[in-house]
Amino acid sequence: MVYICYPDENSVTATDSKTGQFASTLQRGILGTLLGIVAILGFGLLRELATGNLLWGGVGLLLFVGAGYGIIALFLEGYDEGRDVSRGEQ
After folding, report:
1. pLDDT digits over 66-88, tens only?
2. Burial of 46 by CB count in 10 Å (0-12 exposed, 13-18 middle, 19+ buried)?
3. Which residues neighbour 46 within 8 Å (Cβ) at sequence distance 6 or greater?
4. What angle, rounded to 10 degrees, do the helices at 18-46 and 54-87 form?
5. Nearest CA among 7, 61, 72, 2 for reference residue 35
6. Is the pTM of this model over 0.90?
7. Is residue 45 within 8 Å of 60, Cβ to Cβ?
8. pLDDT tens digits, residue range 33-70?
9. If we measure between CA atoms, which residue out of 5, 15, 23 comes closest to residue 89?
10. Beta-carbon neighbour count of residue 53 at 10 Å?
């Protein structure tokens, strides 16, 4: 059986402290870097479409678009977290 624990208003979240904010930022930075590498590899495979290799070109397209979506999602997550901290919301 799996139990899911939802935080309540009195619980401490990871972004309540400067250390938690730093850890969250570091995690997003590392994940963004890895997604950037995947996007570069996907773009390299995407160039295979020009040579007629549709399978590898399609894989490259999926990797490139998926990594781009992930990078944008990380950026928006960090923006929302920063906006909440600047307002004083915890």
Report:
1. 999 999 999 999 998 888 777 76
2. buried
3. 57, 60, 61, 64
4. 160
5. 72
6. no
7. yes
8. 999 999 999 999 999 998 999 999 999 999 999 999 99
9. 15
10. 14
